[in-house]
Amino acid sequence: MALDPSLLLAVSALSLAIILLRRLVKGSTVHSPPLLASFPPGPPTLPLLGNLHQIPQDYGYLTYADWARSTAASSDGLLGLKIGPTARIVILSRWRQVRDLLDARGAIYSSRPRLPAAEYVLPPPGDIHPAFLAYGPKWRRTRRAVTEFMKEDALEKLLPIQDAETTQLMWDLLQDSRNSSSPVDDGRYQDHALRAFAGIILASEDWAAILAGGAFPPLDVFPWIRHIPDVLTPWSGWRARAADVRRRQQGLYEELYAETLERVRGGKGRDSYFARLIGEQEKAERDEKDKEAFTQLEMTYLAGFMLEGGSDTTAMAFLTLVLAMAAFPEIQKEAQAEIDSVLGAESMPHSVAGKELPFLRACFLESLRWRPGFTMAIPHTTTADDAYKGYFIPRGTTVLINTWAIHHDPDEYEEPDEFRPSRFLANRFGAKESRSNENNENEQGEAQSGTGASSLPLAPGEAEKDMKGRRESYAFGAGRRLCPGQKMAEMSVMLSMAKLLWAFDMRSAGQPLDTDVRTAFTNSILMGPKKFPVVFAVRSEAKAQVIRDEWKRADAFLARFE
């Protein structure tokens, strides 16, 4: 029997209505947005401007954390900002958001937004700096090169250099404390530290100045600004500043590359990783069929990036620890007691392991949590539409990790603004015990998402619960663009602090040291302590003599690289 066409049409219409209704309510798949899903909430907007007029120029991470708390009831702190008529920003202020999006959905959350500042700072075509490469084949090739350099066996080869450089740092501090007319070091220690950690902070600070809020016009929102003379805009001189950064950065990178090339050709470091890369690059110049080899310009920026990325976070973490040890002497004494007990009071440490020095490692993790070098991670961008907890995140949305907000979440950390290393002994993640138990119970049976937490042995403590997908620290980012140098940074800071605490007592020059984030730390993307007066007092004359003897050996070793 033939079906009545009108009945067939009615059934089809009803079926379509049911499908649409289900889509309106919950979405057709886990990640597809409901038709009426809204962008994550944020402050009230203005026509055309959106939230552009509210973007803070100073301490943005603090403002964004406050805004996220105001949306906590409706979106659990997921913050959405509208910049101009079309640009969208989502700020992640909870570790679960980072796990669920950047770790678990890395295929669409791993690219970089187009940064107009990069177009004016980097040489054409602009996709040369590894930190700003779009997610794709070129980024993967560069990432492979970087991770190869950061393998455990490669890091072991770097240990003698780290040991010598940190011994040089102890010698410099000893000389200053003995030769100065005042026992107070008013900032020379910072110069020594920067030199010890590769001395390329300059490039990072230049980037921080360019990318800081209000320093560069929002060309991605209002591209027509580039056609207006500088003097007629609120960003007067932005072109000249960008050109100066480009000249300084490219000059520094080229100088570093030229020095490395000269050493390799002179027979020094022939078995090093960079020597192999240089050999591959020169071979590619002779054989144009090798598409995988780097060009000389790419090699130049790769080398600069690796030194730059390894020095900024490392130096800031070290200087923050110096401030914390001088400001909180009871913590300093506990760390010194551990070092003397485990490594001995007579010999200078030459290598350290976190499992041997759990309190020192807890101090390192707490410094990253308490005052992270990068309060906001380098932006990610989505390459496809997505939905998360009922909210629509469109393709091309800029996604930011508010590292400060995650590390100072009062729901996760007891007294988050206190420097309290013991929290990482009681719990691997430094979290409240009640929060740890709750998180673990809620996640039983869920699939492991992303790369998960660190695979290092769990810290002792009855409160320990392994929270799936959580990281000990978000100071190194997350997802597929997680900083590959975090192990190297930990090795370097741990060794430097072990030597410093073994050799010196650090104390304030009289007045209590300021540790407030608004007054004691720099107001930039790369945050670190401002110069502060501190006394470095060698703990004994015997230790001073050990430093002298060790420095002679270190100086002879480092001379091989000059």
Index terms:
562 residues, alpha+beta, Cytochrome p450, 4-stranded mixed beta sheet, 20 helices, 49% helix, globular, oxidoreductase activity, acting on paired donors, with incorporation or reduction of molecular oxygen
What is the strand and helix layout of this fold?
Layout: H1 5-26, H2 60-70, H3 72-75, E1 79-83, E2 87-92, H4 95-103, H5 106-109, H6 116-121, H7 137-149, H8 152-179, E3 184-185, H9 188-196, H10 201-211, H11 238-265, H12 273-286, H13 296-327, H14 329-343, H15 358-370, E4 380-381, E5 386-388, E6 391-393, E7 398-401, H16 403-407, H17 423-426, H18 433-442, H19 486-503, E8 504-508, E9 534-538, H20 541-558
Parallel strand pairs: 2-7
Antiparallel strand pairs: 1-2, 3-9, 4-7, 5-6, 8-9
Helix pairs in contact: 8-9, 8-19, 8-20, 9-13, 10-11, 11-13, 13-14, 13-15, 13-19
